[in-house]
Amino acid sequence: MERLTAVEQRAPGAWQVATVASIRLETPRVKTFRIALGMWVAHLPGQHYEVRLTADDGYRAQRSYSIASSPLLEGEVELTVERLEDGEVSMYMHDVLGVGDEIEVRGPFATYFVWRGEEPVLLLGGGSGVVPLMSMLRHRRLTAPQLPMRMLYSVRSPEDLIYGAELGEETTLTYSRSAPPGWTGHIGRIDEAMIVRAAAGFTSGPAFVCGSNGFVESASRHLLTAGFPPASVRTERFGPSG
Ligand SMILES: Cc1cc2nc3c(=O)[nH]c(=O)nc-3n(C[C@H](O)[C@H](O)[C@H](O)COP(=O)(O)OP(=O)(O)OC[C@H]3O[C@@H](n4cnc5c(N)ncnc54)[C@H](O)[C@@H]3O)c2cc1C
How far apart are CA 35 and CA 18, in angstroms? Predict the structure, then answer.
């Protein structure tokens, strides 16, 4: 735990040209890019980087991507990106960017969506919203495995499941559209009953909610009706779809 609290939230560094060290296919539509940074600073789990693309004519597109890795991965960060149809930046990263290529990045960016080692912690992720939560989960496993942490993770179908092999006993998974054959776990969206069960024994501590606008709205509402004080609910919204 000392290693986590020792990391202070700083102003993000300048833009830098980083190198793609490796690319991992997580699902048919999601890839993880391990980025090697010349100017690396340890992040707090939950923080994000900005990625900037510049065309030959000077046109620029800039998007935010959460850090998936633990801050203990020195000199590198992992960004997990979902490929959106017609998505300017995500399609470039999926279809053009290769290992050894350079990419312009800036970060890590400070927000209130950071885990500083408070306990216990409840994580609610929808789709690619699991990315910053995975940084929290990974870091907790490395630094404070005894600390209570539970994650509720909602995906539409089996082919949308990110980090499937890494989801441990802390995670309760639910399939909102179609479940794999023989699935005996949760089906449907995260609801109040799931939250109450997951939070049993948690008397304090923050809840982190991340996903699409629709997911964040609905999951936050359920947290409040389950008794979480508004000040304990921290949210990060990735985009417009519900
Ligand atoms: C703080 C923060 C952290 C983020 N972290 C991640 C991350 O870890 N992984 C990740 O994949 N994305 C993440 N996002 C979303 C990311 O920044 C981009 O918005 C996303 O990749 C789409 O960019 P694009 O250029 O590909 O698509 P655009 O060209 O911007 O949009 C293409 C189409 O997709 C729609 N769209 C835009 N964003 C989304 C979305 N998130 N979901 C559904 N439809 C959308 C647009 O309305 C448009 O119709 C994060 C966003 C924020 C604000």
Answer: 6
Within this chain, do residues 102 and 144 fall inside the same structural domain, yes or no?
Answer: no
37 within a domain of the structure (yes/no):
yes
Q: 42: Cβ–Cβ under 8 A, 6 or more apart, which residues?
A: 7, 71, 74
Please check whether residues 11 and 105 belong to one and the same domain. yes
26 CB near ligand 1 (under 6 Å): no
242 in any annotated domain: no
Portion of the chain with pLDDT greater than 70, in percent: 95
Is the per-residue pLDDT at 202 higher than 50? Answer: yes
Out of 15-29, 57-71, 156-170, 193-207, least confident range: 193-207
Residue ID of nearest Cα to ligand 1 atom 17: 64
Confirm whether 114 is domain-assigned: no
Q: What is the DSSP code (8-state) at residue 83? A: -
Rounded to the nearest 5°, which phi and psi values hold at 2? Answer: -55, -40
- pLDDT value for 5: 46
| Cα–ligand 1 centroid distance for 200 (angstroms) | 33
Helix locations, 13-129, DSSP H: 88-95
**46: containing domain:** 2-109
Residue 137 forms part of a structural domain: yes
Whole-number pLDDT of residue 1? 46
Structure tokens at 69: 């890795």
Question: What pTM value is reported for the model?
Answer: 0.95
Number of domains into which the chain is organized: 2
